[in-house]
Structure formats: C-alpha cells, structure tokens
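fold-stage: in
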Amino acid sequence: MLDLLVVVPHPDDEGFGAGGALLLAKAAGLRTGILTLTRGEAGRTLGLCPPEELGRVRSEELRRAAEVLRVDFLEVLSFPNGLPREAEGGKGARPRGKASWNTPRRKRPSESASSP
C-alpha cells in the first residue's frame, strides 16, 4: 500500500508539481508512487527525437526521474494524449466548464499598505 500517490496527465508533470513532496514523503519513511495517465506523445519534440518516438522517450525520462525521486511505484498508462475527437467534424471536444483548485492571490505589500 502507498502513503502518497501522485497522479499526473503527462510524464514530467510529477517533477514540476510534486517532486519536492515526493522526496519529503520518502525522507519521512512513507511509500510513494507516480501514476501517469499518458505517455506524453502529443508534446513538442524540440528536435530531441522524431515525433513518433516522443512517447517512448518521455516514458524513459519518467523512469529515470522516478529513480531520482525514489518512488516505490510507477505506472505509465496509455490514454491518448490530447483532446478527444468528436465523431463529426474532427473538432476537439471542449468542456462546458472546468474545475480547478486556486490558491487565493496574496496582496502585494503596496496593495495592503495604507498611505498617509
């Protein structure tokens, strides 16, 4: 059983979003894991590999990152990377709404200071 499982859509999101938390949890003796929903094949190659190799390359990079992060569990799922296609017209499906977690914006010192 895992104490902390980080679920991300693409390889490399775990490092940007939760790498520090994974390392802190591991240092505290917790069992950690990463579950990535896609192989990241729809990203940009930046000239590092042919486009058809991107999913494999990003999956391998994730495996190396998981070693550095010392996770106990890693799984890369193969959901398609990108927006789903509608049956007619080929336009990407767009949601009517979205949900997100926002941290309240902190006021700058100049916004909270009163002027004489």
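fold-stage: in (second)
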Amino acid sequence: MTEQQTVTVRRAPKVGAFISTFAALGFVVSTIITLFFPANGEVGIGETIGYMSVYGIGIGATVGALIFLLIDSRGTVGSGVAEFSASPATGDAGAGVGDAGAGVGDGGSGASAS
C-alpha cells in the first residue's frame, strides 16, 4: 500500500553565499577606497588597509544579509507542487509523478514538506 501526499517544494537562496560574497566585495571596496587617500607616516598602508577592511567586511556582510532577507521574503519564486509517495512497509520514499517544476529529484534542492 502506497500513500501519496501533495507537498510544496520551495527553493531558497543560500545565506552563506550572500554574506560571504558581499563581505568579500566589502573588503575589495574598502581596500580601493583606502588606496585613494595618502598613507600616514606613523602607520603603514598595510595596517590602514587592515583596519579599514574590518569596516568594509562588516558593512558588506550586513548588506548581503539584508539582500538575502529581501529575496528570501519573496519565497514563492522557484516553488512548485509535487506528489510524494512513500511505502509504509519498506520506508522507501521518493518523488512521484507530478508537477515537479521546482527541481524535485535534482540532488538536494532543499525540498521541504508543508
């Protein structure tokens, strides 16, 4: 006997990718901005870049997190409905035939049942 359920599959962006990408971008931007100003005689350019990159990385990571939240709040993009069938006797579970437009069965696309 096989049970079939309809589940909603939602594809979400990865938060780590957003934060790390924008943090790296913040480092690059802060380094470029720092190089436009003359270096202080008491403190070298390397220390100045290191100090300013702390701000650049922090601001970049914050902007990345905010953009992630903005995109993630529109969670209906990339979602779809699929049929899920499970055999209670063997415990085998798999995606059944259905509207699998959201990437069901593509190797860990982040499916979640609701």
